[in-house]
Structure prediction request, 274 residues.
Amino acid sequence: MPEEISNQQQAKRRSGSWIGLAIGLVCLVGLIALGGCSKKSANSSPGTVVKNGSGMEFAYVPAGSFQMGSGNGDPNEQPVHQVTFARGFYMGRYEVTQSQWQKVMGNNPSKFSNCGENCPVEQVSSDDAQEFIKKLNAQNDGYQYRLPNEAEWEYACRAGTTGDYAGDLNSMGWYTVNADYKTHPVGLKQANAWGLYDMHGNVSEWVMDYQHNNYDGAPTDGSAWSKAISDDRMERGGSWTFDAKRVRSAQRSEAPHDYRWKDVGIRLVAVARS
Prediction:
């Protein structure tokens, strides 16, 4: 009888080993193809980086809460309100570059095309951004891509800070004082605490929310705000054309969804496909 039980236990262990090996192989395939398994997101620390097949890098932004807006800023940044994210997400470490846009779209609309392939793509509208995202998603590389919403963007920009900037502005951002009237290659300045670059300045970044004049009635669960007073879309972060006040973490601006200008680009969020 003891021998029979022992044999049964060994069989169970062998079965468990095969199951564990199968799970490990699935996870390994996920790590190679997607940059990580679903478990990685659950256990990732802030700033953990994954890379997709196109070489785009995304940093993990953890779940948590923050105070969105500014009591000392513009009226459209008020009232300050708490937003809570039940889950973390992956935000682009960098603004989408000209080479990444060229690879997906087959063109480079940028005014500063002589800046180099690692400079942010600009002169793209919100509509153009959606076309880029549509084509990127059609590659079916294991992620679903989209623009961040305003709450995600500001939460990621602040990276746990509560002031106007996520650190020393001159060290972190390109704006009127230091940009020399042009864009610059992404990632040259200091990253914030969660590994995100150029959140202050360089190019202003489209987000998915529609225009609202203030935060009255804004979502508090980290979702996008779709009900709108117009078809205009929001931009965040400011650009090389903006002064210090207009590249603050809480700063908001809006523009028509088909608007293109030499200081407007994009940054993406990546969600692992289930």
Summary: Residues 1-40 have pLDDT under 50 and may be disordered. The first strand starts at residue 49 and ends at 51. The CA atoms of residues 238 and 247 lie 4 Å apart. Helices lie at 2-34, 38-43, 98-105, 126-138, 150-158, 169-172.
